[in-house]
Amino acid sequence: MFTRLALPVAATALLTGLALQANATPGVTFNDAINDINPNLATGNGTLDLVKMEVSHTATDVVFQLTVNGNIGSVDWGKFMIGIANNKGYGTSSSDGWARPITMSANGGMTNWIGSWVDSGGGAENRSNQTSWGLTGATYNGNFGVFSLSAGAQSTITYGVSIASLGMSIGDTFSFDAYSSGGGSGDSAIDALANPNFAVSNWGDAYNSGPSTSFSYTLGAVPAPGAIALIGAAGLLARRRKA
Ligand SMILES: [Ca+2]
Ligand SMILES: [Ca+2]
After folding, report:
1. What are phi and psi of 211, to 5 degrees?
2. How far, in Å, is the centroid of ligand 2 from the Cα of 232?
3. CA of 30 to the centre of ligand 1 (A)
4. What average pLDDT does the segment 100-106 reach?
5. d(Cα 86, Cα 220) in Å, to the nearest integer?
6. How many structural domains comprise the chain?
C-alpha cells in the first residue's frame, strides 16, 4: 500500500515545485572573464571587474542580477550600467543614457539604459532613447522598480524593471551588455560583460557593444499559474480516483 502511494506523492511534490516557479522563468547566467581590466586602470579593489549577470523575467518584469568581483561595501565609487537594444526602431549607435563614451551597435542600437551607483545607499535610473534620452524611472522618484545591493567578497546588484518600461512585451528578444565605470562623467566601460578582453586602455576611450560583443535574451512565454494549477488539480483527481 505504501509503495503504491509513493509515486503519486512524488509526482505531487514535483507539481508543487513547478507551481512555485510558475510566475518566473529560470534565470540565464551570462558570464564574463575575471581580471579582464587593463592593468593601467584602477579596478576599485575588484569592484569594477564584472563576473556574471543572471537575467530572468516574469510575465511583467525583467530582473538583472549583476555580480562584481569585489566588495562594494568597502569601495563604492564604481558605477554600473546596462545597455539594452530592443530593435523597436528608436535605437542609437552614437550615445548612451549617461552621455558616456559607450555605444551599442547591436540589434538596432541602444534603446534603453539602466545606470546605477552604489555609494550613499545606492540608486538607479532607467532611461530610454525616444527622440533623445529621457528618464523613464528612478529610485529617487520611487518608480524604478526593484533595486538592491548585497556586499561581500563578491557583491551583487539587483535590478527589477517592468518589461513595458523597456518598450517590450513577452516574445521579444533584446541585445544587452553590462558595464562598470568610474565616477567621472566621461568615464568609459572599464569592463564590459560580453567582452572577455580588455574593454578600453584609457578612462575616456570609446567602447562599443557590437553584434559579437553583446548578449541576447528572449522574453519567452511564462506559464500561467492557472494552467499549472489545473495540471496539479488533474493530478490530485487522478490520485483520488486510484485510491
Ligand atoms: Ca570581468
Ligand atoms: Ca569583460
Report:
1. -55, -35
2. 44
3. 11
4. 98
5. 14
6. 2
